[in-house]
Amino acid sequence: MKKMMRWLGAILVMISGLAAVVPAQAANTDTSNNIGFSVAAQTPKNQIDKQATFFDLKMTAGQTQTLQTRIYNTTNRDIRVAMGIHTAYTNSGGAIEYVTPAKTYNQDTVDDNGISIWWLIGLGALGMLILVLLILWLVLFLKKRRQSQD
């Protein structure tokens, strides 16, 4: 029985060690702006977070407002820019990714295109709990089986 407990303990330690490994990715050190321009929001007075670099406005239902932005051409040539409302984010490689724009804005359909680290931690913890319970059940089952054979 002690030998079996040692094996189960060793397996549990190995699995725990594997679960602790977190993949990492090096930061993108390329600081060049490959798109040729940048855009800055000209935040109005009803901006909720004055430090934010995006529009986060306090508005009432049905209210309309004209938004202004400033476009900076970072190239030495003329550019043509098409305007539109998009949800964008920076992917793990540092490139800008755009979500296909909706015809109308609806808060319920906005996707942040990412998984919360807390969700991943919770999922990992749940997996570890299930694994521990499974090993505990196995130990008790084998112990009962051994007792019934004696």
From TrEMBL:
Residues 37-108 form the WxL Interacting Protein peptidoglycan binding domain. Keywords: Membrane, Signal, Transmembrane, Transmembrane helix. Residues 1-26 form the signal peptide. It comes from Lactiplantibacillus argentoratensis. The chain crosses the membrane at residues 117-142. This is DUF916 domain-containing protein. The keyword Zinc does not apply. Pfam families: WxLIP_PGBD.
